[in-house]
Design goal:
Elements (H helix, E strand, L loop, with lengths): L3 E7 L5 E7 L3 H7 L1 E3 L23 E14 L4 E10 L10 H16 L2 E12 L12 H6 L1 H13 L4 E6 L5 E6 L2 E2 L1 H20 L4 E2 L13 E8 L18 H12 L1 H8 L5 H4 L12 E3 L6 E3 L7 H7 L2 E3 L8 H17 L17 H6 L9 H10 L1 H4 L6 H16 L4 H11 L1
Parallel strand pairs: 1-5, 12-13
Antiparallel strand pairs: 1-2, 3-4, 4-5, 6-8, 6-9, 6-10, 6-11, 7-8, 11-14, 13-14
């Protein structure tokens, strides 16, 4: 029996799709790839195909990348997969490849800021089964119930070449949080995709099923993705921290943050891209509802994270900002591309860091919010898509066909769940994510 390697892309729906080939063909496939079809970009998370400008026409190649290769050993089997890049037949990056979109954003960051991005994705997920334990939010009992699964997951993360940080029983029912160390550039988004896939694989191997759905029950907690970001000078030294800057942010960091907040309502459709994402993005859920900067505030859309050292050099290395308006319905590459572009716009425009908020913004009037440059973020996916489509600056960060294709893709998803009630919608997303 031939060992198979699954060549994969994480697409606009945040789904990992691709083709498998015999491992003996790896050298050839890294040169020639596997065949891919342009209209595949319009397969939504429910496997319906949105309106596509490509129809049945065109051919592409999916080229597996050895730098994003995983071999996961289990007692009964081995899983091998590689993330890759979608290119045209002449080898040019395809303009709708999510990895290519992120590479373009990162190149812009280096050009306008002279820095590289260091990032880590922090994930929450839930196991679909039931537990007899109660009162186990953050509890040892809840952790011990799934210790074997947690240990196996962290071992697989390490075997894949990443850095296990922590894993715990989260507050929600059967909810866990897994954190891995930061990576540079594209590898950070690759790591996020690989972590999700390994979590699902480890859960299956332990007789469980994991879901990263944004929210299973609107009366309970949601599952967020928190994206931690910092910057490095070309020589590898930290560029994020300045002890004399606002909240400890360097001038570059402050401008980047200001850009993200200015364009947050326009990029939300790319970072929180499901219909049910907006059940979670409401006040008092420890997620976010406004485009605000928080200093150690877990309801801010961007948070300045605490550090655990008093040594200046250690502080500079630890210092990072956290984007909290994301979930795992988003493709990590696309979400990070949108955030980086927004930050770059802030750097290019010379924006200054905003003042952090320290109150319940839901109590302020629209006029008060507006006077401070704050807005209530879109409350539905439809509204978020409208904000993106109406923002010419944000649309122009991406290749010309992207905005219309993305809107059509998401519109097909909206139509799929339109006749469902909230409970049915949550169940549908739980099944696919």
């Amino acid at each position: 029996m031939s060992d198979l390697i699954f060549a994969a892309t994480c697409d606009l729906a945040g789904k990992v799709r691709g083709k498998a080939f015999p491992s003996a063909q790896l050298d050839k496939r890294q040169q020639r790839g596997v065949g891919w079809t342009p209209t595949n970009v319009q397969i939504n998370c429910f496997d319906a195909i949105a309106d596509s400008p490509f129809g049945a026409l065109g051919d592409l190649l999916l080229i597996p990348d050895q730098a994003a290769s995983v071999t996961a050993e289990f007692d009964t089997h081995t899983e091998r997969f590689m993330l890759g890049d979608i290119v045209t037949l002449d080898g040019t990056p395809w303009e709708l490849c999510t990895r290519a979109l992120l590479k373009t954003a990162l190149a812009r960051l280096e050009a306008v800021g002279g820095v590289q991005l260091l990032a880590a994705f922090e994930h929450e997920f839930q196991l679909k089964g039931t537990s007899a334990l109660v009162g186990e939010g953050y509890g040892r009992g809840g952790f011990e119930e799934q210790r074997a699964l947690c240990e196996a997951l962290m071992a697989q993360v390490e075997a894949a070449g990443f850095y296990p940080d922590s894993i715990m029983k989260e507050y929600g029912a059967n909810q866990y949080e897994v954190v891995i160390g930061p990576e540079k550039g594209v590898r950070a988004a690759d790591a996020a995709v690989i972590l999700r896939e390994l979590t699902r694989s480890v859960a299956r191997a332990h007789g469980e099923a994991a879901t990263f759905t944004p929210i299973r029950d609107p009366n309970s907690v949601g599952n967020g993705v928190h994206i931690h970001m910092s910057f490095l000078h070309p020589d590898g030294t930290p560029a994020t921290y300045d002890p004399d800057g606002p909240c400890g942010m360097s001038k570059l960091t402050g401008a980047f943050v200001a850009g993200v907040l200015k364009y947050l309502d326009a990029i939300l459709a790319l970072t929180a891209p499901s219909v049910i994402s907006y059940l979670r993005l409401t006040p008092h859920r420890w997620s976010t509802a406004y485009n605000n900067l928080g200093f150690r505030d877990r309801e801010a859309s961007l948070r300045v994270c605490p550090v655990t050292s008093k040594d200046p050099s250690d502080i500079a290395s630890q210092f990072n900002i956290e984007y909290r308006a994301a979930d795992a319905a988003a493709c990590p590459h696309l979400a990070l591309a949108a955030i980086v572009h927004a930050g770059c716009q802030g750097i290019e425009d010379g924006l200054s860091a905003p003042e952090p908020t320290e109150e319940d913004l839901s109590l302020l009037s629209p006029a008060d919010l507006n006077s401070r440059g704050l807005v209530r973020l879109p409350e539905t996916l439809e509204a978020a898509l409208d904000r993106f489509m109406q923002n010419e600056t944000a649309k122009n960060w991406f290749p010309e066909p992207f905005a219309e294709i993305y809107r059509a893709h998401k519109t097909s998803e909206i139509v799929h769940v339109a006749e469902m009630d909230t409970t049915e919608r949550c169940a549908a997303y739980e099944s696919t994510y």
